[in-house]
Design goal:
The chain is an all-alpha fold. The protein is 55% helix and 2% strand. It contains 27 helices and 2 strands. A two-stranded antiparallel ribbon has the order 1-2.
């Protein structure tokens, strides 16, 4: 009886021979010896046959494992994957779709032979392996240290797209969650730890898949860490990760906040080393560039504007994420203002204290002209914010026209800082009125007053070299600001005397509260840089 051995039946024949104890000790040149020679001289030297045998060996477990057929196949495949590409014949890749010149359709057939072989020529072929065997092959390849992390990462990406249905769209289409959870967890475990070994988009898809199949916390934490290292490459759509089923919110904001924290941790300027049983702090510069940090800050601002549309998003999640990037200095707060306005629009029922808390996030001085124009007409903002925007817009206009910039009036300064030292203001509740939302009529009146204030400064700017003229302009500006506050019912109510009616002696109260008769208190100090943030 003649039996022809090939890659498809050699594992079965080897296991049968082992079961029948067809050893050399029984008869010289017995079947086991002949099969082992065939494996070493033919199968393990062929890339294609090694993969076929490895797949066939799974049906003969655990005997094929005990006979070391599986381990020998894995080592043969890993060794060939690490070959110098100059020694690789392109025909090794039996699973790849052939090029036109390889099919004989190209008259210049020399092109196929002269084509350079890529370093990842083996990647597609290994996608045929089951995840447990694939894991062992990749581990063996990594242990040899011959291939770069980028090639290993590319192999894992190709395997994910092949073995996880719907992965390319960021979803998993299957009811067999347990099976695909094992695949996702294994791929994450095999990922190289180095930055940019795999693309950012692939990591995001892998994280979304891990959430869908409910992977373990270790797998998710590893993905969050790797994503955080490359956060500046992300787009807003990348970060819109759907929340798990059963959650009230639309998006997984907590995971995004963890990613941002991982990004910022790269810039820690201290590390600890142990030396002679003592912990010493070693200072080193941060590794993040200002450009990358600014990109992430703008990214999070845009992300906040998107998640603000969720009517179920708690204010605490919005504020916590915004405060996470508050350490990043950015020249403009337009993006943050847009996000805050979107949240106020979608959550009209929030309390005054919550409205005040969210508005504290932005710096009115860092709003562009367009953002200021929008803000002063925004009925959703508290009056405190509107007046601050108007004042800083006036300051900016005065600076651009060359006139002196008036110092912030004492009364307005106290309002901005929340300090109400006057005994007359103690009886009323100025915070409640000051945080109230402005009406359209009030906003129109405020804009009219600030326009007049700009005009006054523009006229005075031509005489700014004269001390008397400069002081007169500054006093006029302060007087205008007093009028701005005094003309409004809400400001009159704030500064009215204890127990008095709002309109009885508002003029004297406002005059005494907003400006001092002492010239030193109203003198302009253009060289002093003051910061008046929302409080």
């Amino acid at each position: 009886m003649t039996v022809t051995l090939n890659a498809y039946n050699v594992v079965t024949a080897r296991c049968a021979a082992e079961y029948l104890e067809m050893y050399e000790t029984i008869e010289k040149g017995n079947l086991i010896y002949k099969i082992d020679v065939f494996l070493n001289s033919s199968i393990f030297r062929s890339w294609k046959d090694s993969i076929i045998v490895l797949q066939a060996a799974k049906s003969m477990l655990p005997l094929s494992e005990e006979l070391k057929v599986v381990s020998l196949c894995i080592d043969a495949i890993a060794t060939k994957a690490c070959y110098d590409v100059s020694k690789v014949d392109w025909s090794y890749t039996y699973n790849r779709r052939k090029l036109p010149e390889e099919n004989g359709n190209d008259p210049n057939s020399e092109g196929a032979r002269n084509r350079a072989v890529p370093k990842d020529w083996w990647v597609e072929d290994l996608c045929e392996l089951e995840i447990d065997i694939y894991k062992r092959v990749i581990m063996n390849i990594k242990s040899k240290g011959m291939l770069s992390n980028e090639v290993i990462g590319g192999a894992l990406k190709a395997y994910s797209y092949r073995r996880l249905p719907g992965f390319s769209k960021g979803v998993i289409h299957s009811e067999d969650v347990v099976k695909y959870r094992s695949t996702v967890d294994t791929i994450v475990w095999l990922l190289p730890a180095e930055k940019r070994s795999v693309s950012f988009s692939f990591l995001l898809k892998l994280l979304k898949a891990a959430i869908i199949v409910d992977s373990g916390e270790m797998a998710k934490e590893q993905l969050v860490r790797l994503i955080g290292l490359q956060l500046e490459e992300a787009s807003v759509n990348d970060l819109l990760i759907r929340a798990a089923e059963g959650e009230d919110v639309m998006y997984d904001v907590d995971t995004v906040q963890k990613i941002v924290k991982e990004f910022l941790m790269q810039d820690q300027n201290a590390e600890f080393e142990s030396e002679e049983n003592e912990i010493q702090e070693i200072r080193r510069p941060g590794i993040l560039t200002d450009a990358s940090k600014l990109m992430v800050a703008k990214l999070i601002d845009a992300y906040l504007a998107e998640i603000a549309k969720d009517p179920n998003l708690p204010l605490s999640k919005f504020v916590d994420l915004a405060e996470t990037v508050s350490c990043i200095s950015r020249p403009a707060h337009d993006g943050l203002y847009r996000a805050i306005d979107m949240y106020l629009k979608e959550h009209p029922g929030i309390s005054k204290s919550e409205r005040k808390r969210i508005c504290k996030l932005m710096d009115c001085k860092k709003l562009s002209v367009d953002a200021c124009m929008h803000a002063v007409q925004n009925e959703r903002l508290p009056l405190r914010v509107v007046v601050q925007v108007l004042f800083f817009e006036q300051v900016r206009a005065a600076a651009s026209s060359g006139s002196s910039t008036p110092d912030l009036p004492k009364g307005l300064k106290e309002l901005n800082t929340g300090s109400h030292g006057s005994s007359r203001s103690a009886a009323t509740n100025p915070e409640e009125d000051w945080d109230a939302v402005a009406t359209a009529e009030e906003l129109k009146a405020l804009k009219g007053e600030i326009a007049a204030l700009r005009l006054s400064n523009g006229v005075g700017g031509s005489d700014r070299n004269g001390g008397d003229s400069r002081n007169s302009v500054d006093k006029a500006a302060i007087t205008k600001m007093k009028g701005l506050l005094k003309s409004k019912r809400i400001f009159t109510k704030i500064w009215s005397s204890k127990g008095g009616a709002p309109g009885e002696n508002s003029g004297s109260d406002s005059s005494e509260s907003l400006g001092s008769a002492n010239p030193e208190e109203v003198k302009s100090t253009p060289s002093r840089n003051r910061r008046h943030s929302v409080s």
